[in-house]
Amino acid sequence: MITFISLEDLKDKKHALIFLSGIGAISFIILTFIAMLFYPRPYNFFTDHFSMLGLINANPSFFGRIPPGLPLPNPISSILFMSALTITAVATVPFWIIITSLFEENRNTKILSRFGSIVGLISSPLLIGIAFPADVYLEIHSISTMWFFLLFAVAIMIYTIAIFLNENYPNEYAIFGVIVVAVAILYVFIPFTPLNAMHQKIAVYLFIAWPLLQAKKIWNEI
Q1: Is there a smaller number of Cβ atoms within 10 Å at the N or the C end of the chain?
Q2: 202 vs 200: CA distance, rounded Å
Q3: Residue 1 lies in a domain
Q4: Residues 153-169 pLDDT 10s
Q5: Strands (E), the chain
Q6: Residue 3 falls inside a structural domain
Q7: Prediction pTM value
Q8: CA 137 to CA 219: how far, in whole Å?
């Protein structure tokens, strides 16, 4: 268990990189929460999507709000949203590289971990595509969102299999991975439901929780 993080710990390259990965994941939660507060219209956590925070103009009719209302400039929230996604995209790169070090003992898990990290690394730049404002670059934003969720879920699924095969990894980690993947896949393939915005937030926060949980184990193992 991580109890204290000292400057001495951070002198180690792997510890420093995994620490920065964790900070990157947590920064998404903090920055998007602040963005919700600065959104020029009342932001409903349960019914409004994350994408609304990135709109250049807060236009309720863009997401089918009734009555539509006039668009309002949204400079602060959109900048915070773009920053959160860009930081997270960069922060995930060292995570996907370092996590492979936990699967070196067995040939099968080693191959799976490499494959899982390749898929994870491919998903990382898609976060920057999601940062493109949906009211200006809808196609880029939508395609990036769909493929990020799919690829990130596939990467977790591959690692879930590797965890089941790794005797040094508690199965609880794998079970959690199955839950995360199921929630994400359902979000992608069942998009139009009354609870879609809340489903999105659950999927996103699970996507953040999964690497943080692995980062805790990595920290203790390296």
Answers
A1: N
A2: 5
A3: no
A4: 999 999 999 999 998 88
A5: 57-58, 72-73
A6: no
A7: 0.89
A8: 39
